[in-house]
Specification:
The protein has helices spanning 41-57, 70-79, 109-113, 119-132; strands spanning 64-68, 92-94, 100-104. It has 136 residues and is of the alpha+beta class. The two termini are 14 Å apart.
Length: 136
């Protein structure tokens, strides 16, 4: 996020270390750490009401939604009743009446250590998000 201007510094080690996000808001579709890092349907459902409220609260200032991983993508699509989209890393969907939706693999250790998501792929997604923002 730092490389593309969404953060004021490249790393953060604690909540009070001075990191500031610029033009970005980060949240999670599931607010807990489920067993084996695999949320079950009830955990997704229970947390989705909070995600929906967060997104609605930011509606006036949000231009682009970037989903990190299939759980986030599926949850967002379900919440906003968006159908017939496919989870593909790097996809950009412009859905009528919705925000521009960007799709990325989740930056999990499994995805990054196997090369499924490389650093350049990660930076490219944020560059794409930056390029889509009208009020930079």
């Amino acid at each position: 996020m730092f490389e593309t201007g969404f953060a004021n510094k490249p790393t953060s080690l604690s909540k009070n270390d001075g990191l500031v996000l610029n033009g970005a808001y980060m949240t999670a579709a599931v607010k807990c750490a489920p067993p084996l890092n695999k949320p079950n349907p009830s955990e997704k459902s229970n947390c989705s009401q909070y995600l929906f409220e967060e997104i609605k609260a930011l509606e006036e200032t949000t231009e682009v939604i970037l989903t990190l991983g299939k759980v986030a993508f599926d949850t967002y699509c379900k919440l906003f009743k968006i159908e017939r989209l496919t989870f593909i890393h790097g996809a950009c969907y412009r859905v009528e009446g919705q925000k521009t939706l960007l799709v990325s693999y989740h930056p999990s250790r499994r995805n990054t250590s196997t090369g499924k998501l490389t650093w350049s792929m990660w930076v490219d997604v944020f560059k794409r998000a930056r390029s889509l923002i009208v009020n930079k």
